[in-house]
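Researcher: I'm preparing a figure for a lab meeting and need a structural model of a single chain. I don't have an experimental structure, so a prediction will have to do for now. The sequence is pasted below. Please return the structure as C-alpha cells so I can convert it later.
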Amino acid sequence: MRYPLEETAEKHERIVRVASELFRERGFDDVTVAEVMKAGGLTHGAFYSHFPSKEALMAAAVEYGMEATLAGIKKNSATATTRAAYLNRYLSTKHRDNPAQGCTMSALSGDIRNEPEVQHTFSTELKAILEAMGGNRGDAIFTTAAMVGAMVLARAGDDDSLSKEILSEVRKRLTPKSQA
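Model: Understood. Here is the structure written out cell by cell.
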C-alpha cells in the first residue's frame, strides 16, 4: 500500500525522533529496530521502506540529536546571559539524569566511535556546532569538550556527590566571571 508523501515523511521523522531518544537512553547495541518501530507506533516490517540498515537509522538519529543541539546553541549564543543559562541547563543534574532528552554527544560518543557509518555524520554535525559557537575555534573546541566530558564523567560513576561536584566545577570554570 502506498502512502501520501506527507504521511511517509511524518512516519520517517517519528522513527528518527524515537530512535534518537532510545539510543541516547540506552546506546546503539541495547536498542533493536523492532523496539524503535514499536515505540513509534509502526510495524517492524515498515522499517526497510525508510532505512536500508540499522546503521543508517543510527546516523539519522545522531544527526537529529545534534541538529537539536545546534539549534539550542544558535538560540542561546547571542548574549553572555543566554550563554550562561545554556551552560547551567547543560551542566545540570536534570540533564545528567535524562540522557534521552539531552545531548547526543555526551550520550553516544562511546557508541559512535565503534560505528564508521555514523562517525562521518557526527563529524559533520560537530563542525557545524563548533562554527555556530562563534569566536575563537580553539575556545569552542575547549568548551564543547569540557561540557561533554563533564557530562560523560558525571553519568559514569555511582557517587552522586562526586557527579554533582564535576558538573559544578566545570560550570564555574566555563561561566564568564561577569555571570558567576
